[in-house]
Automatic annotation (TrEMBL):
<dbReference type="InterPro" id="IPR017055">
    <property type="entry name" value="Sig_transdc_His_kinase_DctB"/>
</dbReference>
<dbReference type="GO" id="GO:0005524">
    <property type="term" value="F:ATP binding"/>
</dbReference>
<keyword id="KW-0902">Two-component regulatory system</keyword>
<dbReference type="InterPro" id="IPR003594">
    <property type="entry name" value="HATPase_dom"/>
</dbReference>
<feature type="transmembrane region" description="Helical">
    <location>
        <begin position="298"/>
        <end position="317"/>
    </location>
</feature>
<dbReference type="InterPro" id="IPR003661">
    <property type="entry name" value="HisK_dim/P_dom"/>
</dbReference>
<dbReference type="InterPro" id="IPR036097">
    <property type="entry name" value="HisK_dim/P_sf"/>
</dbReference>
<keyword id="KW-0812">Transmembrane</keyword>
<feature type="domain" description="Histidine kinase">
    <location>
        <begin position="379"/>
        <end position="592"/>
    </location>
</feature>
<feature type="transmembrane region" description="Helical">
    <location>
        <begin position="12"/>
        <end position="34"/>
    </location>
</feature>
<keyword id="KW-0067">ATP-binding</keyword>
<dbReference type="InterPro" id="IPR036890">
    <property type="entry name" value="HATPase_C_sf"/>
</dbReference>
<keyword id="KW-0418">Kinase</keyword>
<keyword id="KW-0597">Phosphoprotein</keyword>
<dbReference type="InterPro" id="IPR029151">
    <property type="entry name" value="Sensor-like_sf"/>
</dbReference>
<keyword id="KW-1133">Transmembrane helix</keyword>
<dbReference type="InterPro" id="IPR005467">
    <property type="entry name" value="His_kinase_dom"/>
</dbReference>
Length: 602
């Protein structure tokens, strides 16, 4: 489904990596948000559970609070405390009464201490571990009660080894302050068992941080922190925990998602604390942190799956689009190949057509020359007839002089005849050169020579039509790359065109200017005619376009001239002059400038 690795460029891979990074950040953010949300929810649950367990603890303790007070008003107990051990029958009666009351109240043990802290009567008087006869003056509940204070004290029983909560009340004596102390022991093990069976994590600590109630047995009689020496000595002296070492838990206190967290033996718990109902006590509810992590893991898993599905879907769509694009490109390639084949055929046809057109153009150039020769034939015949007539005259004169023996004068006649034949040879030579179909071979030529020959060739025609050619040579360098015959053809066509434009003009004048600068040679052919209609400017060099009457021209002269100038690397343009008349401007790059440009580019 996916593209091969070697076909995946960094440019293609970058958006997907960016999307993956954004998706990963989004998933992590949602996981963090779920952590905070779950912590708040768990904290609220912990607060509610803490209130519940605080209530059960308070209920378990307070439901027996009345017993010491009520029993302190019992006359038999008061009398026993007054008589002491002297009345055995009274002690048995009190023991039986305490046993019945203890059973009814569902307390653990009820017993009576005298002023010295010795037990005179107890509800467990018949058991092997009876409290009767034992002295508990070292217990804080005795000390507090004998001094007139109500007391509550948790400790491990010094006689039975059974932990419990001891509540005491003094038996008042109007003369001596207190006759003794009534004590009730409440067994809190069933409460702990309820917590344990409920799968909860609840602990209760005293003022020293010792855990004396816990739903987990391994935490009981451990401390949340190290107990200082004075507190430890006091605990030992009161024999509160029956010699337990009270070692601190392997506890780390953390702050996670803004909540207090305990890490105990590698397990984390979110903690909520509250007063334990007695001075210095604290009750702690520990909610397993796994609730939060499990929800985070669930969200992470769901987010990762969704991210994977999105990326997979995106890659699938991309692959699908790539396939469609590849198919489209294949169709385009086939279409382009077909078009290329058509173009190749068309190019070959165009090349053949171009070859034919070049041949036709060459033939048209020659035809144009012959047409020009035809137009010039009358004037040239006139020019030749004049020297022919003069030759006949001089020949007749030479015979006469020869017969008369005047040889000196005969030489003059022969010289004149020779001059006239040279003139005729020059005219016919120019015609032969102009009419010849010369091969195209560019070489260094003098533009001035080609222009002069063209003017000389057109001079007779123009004189016959009354047109004056004024040649102004400003004397610039005129060496250009070209072909003399073709350059002559261009200038003859332009002069012929200018002469035709002057047929109806009052002033028939053609001005030819040869100028230039360090880069170009410039030929301007100006006429004094009516100029060129602005609407015909764009078509002037088009083949077969002419403004002459039907039969007077084929519209090829300027088109052929334009093609010749372009082939020779020059430029030709036309414009109307301000004072009237048209001006053709032909420009060719000088040989020296072309060579300098080539050297610079090389």
């Amino acid at each position: 489904m996916f593209l091969p690795y070697r076909h995946i460029s960094l440019k293609v891979l970058a958006p997907w990596l960016g999307a993956l990074a954004v998706g990963a950040v989004l998933v992590i953010s949602v996981v963090q948000w779920m952590g905070y949300t779950s912590a708040r929810e768990l904290s609220q649950v912990a607060v509610d559970r803490l209130k519940l367990y605080h209530g059960t603890l308070h209920s378990a303790l307070e439901k027996h609070r009345y017993l010491p007070f009520v029993l302190s008003r019992d006359e038999d107990i008061r009398e026993l405390l007054t008589a002491g051990d002297g009345r055995a029958g009274l002690a048995v009666s009190v023991n039986r009464s305490l046993s019945a009351t203890n059973q009814k109240a569902e307390s653990d043990v009820l017993y009576v201490l005298n002023r010295q802290g010795t037990t005179l009567a107890a509800s467990n008087w018949l058991e092997d571990r009876s409290f009767v006869g034992h002295n508990y003056a070292f217990r804080p509940y005795y000390k507090d009660a004998i001094e007139g204070r109500e007391s509550g004290f948790f400790a491990v029983g010094a006689t039975t080894g059974v932990p419990g909560f001891f509540m005491s009340h003094a038996v008042p004596d109007d003369t001596k302050g207190a006759r003794g102390v009534i004590v009730v022991k409440v067994d809190l093990r069933p409460l702990q068992q309820q917590w344990h069976d409920g799968g909860e994590h609840v602990i209760v600590t005293d003022q020293n941080g010792v855990i004396f109630l816990s739903s987990r047995d391994e935490w009981r009689y451990r401390s949340l922190s190290l107990i200082d020496r004075d507190a430890m000595q006091r605990i030992r002296s009161e024999r509160q925990f029956a010699g337990a070492d009270l070692a601190p838990l392997a506890l780390k206190r953390l702050k996670v998602f803004g909540e207090e967290v305990f890490e105990i033996d590698g397990q984390r718990f979110l903690v909520q604390k509250g007063p334990g109902g007695k001075p210095g006590w604290k009750i702690l509810y520990l909610a397993p942190f796994s609730y939060i992590t499990e929800r985070q893991h669930t969200v992470f898993l769901i987010g990762s799956v969704l991210l994977f599905l999105c990326l997979t879907g995106g890659l699938f769509i991309r692959e699908r689009r790539q396939k469609l694009f590849s198919a489209q490109r294949a169709r385009e390639a086939d279409r382009i190949e077909a078009i290329n084949e058509m173009l190749r055929v068309e190019v070959e046809e165009r090349k053949r057509t171009e070859t034919r057109l070049l041949k036709i153009q060459s033939d048209l150039v020659q035809t144009g020359k012959l047409a020009a020769l035809g137009q010039m034939s009358a004037a040239i015949a006139h020019e030749i007839n004049q020297p022919m007539a003069a030759i006949r005259t001089f020949t007749a004169s030479a015979r006469v002089l020869l017969n008369k023996g005047k040889r000196e004068q005969l030489g003059e006649s022969l010289a004149e005849i020779s001059s006239l034949t040279e003139r005729m040879a020059k005219i016919t030579g120019e015609l032969k050169t102009f009419a010849r179909k010369a091969p195209v071979e560019l070489q260094e030529v003098d533009l001035r020579v080609a222009l002069s020959k063209a003017i000389q060739l057109m001079q007779a025609v123009c004189e016959q039509d009354g047109v004056v050619i004024d040649f102004e040579d400003t004397g610039p360098e005129t060496q250009v790359k070209g072909d003399v015959v073709r350059l002559e053809q261009v200038f003859v066509n332009l002069l012929r065109n200018a002469a035709d434009a002057l047929r109806l003009a009052s002033e028939k004048k053609i001005k030819v200017i040869l100028a230039g600068d360090e880069k170009y040679a410039l030929v301007r052919i100006e006429d004094s005619g009516p100029g060129i209609d602005i609407s015909n400017m764009d078509q002037l060099f088009d083949p077969f376009f002419t403004t002459k009457e039907v039969g007077e021209g084929m519209g090829l002269g300027l088109s052929i001239s334009y093609g010749i100038v372009q082939d020779l690397g020059g430029d030709i343009r036309v414009e109307n002059m301000k004072d009237g008349g048209a001006c053709f401007i032909v420009k060719f790059p000088l040989v020296a400038y072309a060579e300098r440009s080539f050297a610079c580019s090389a």
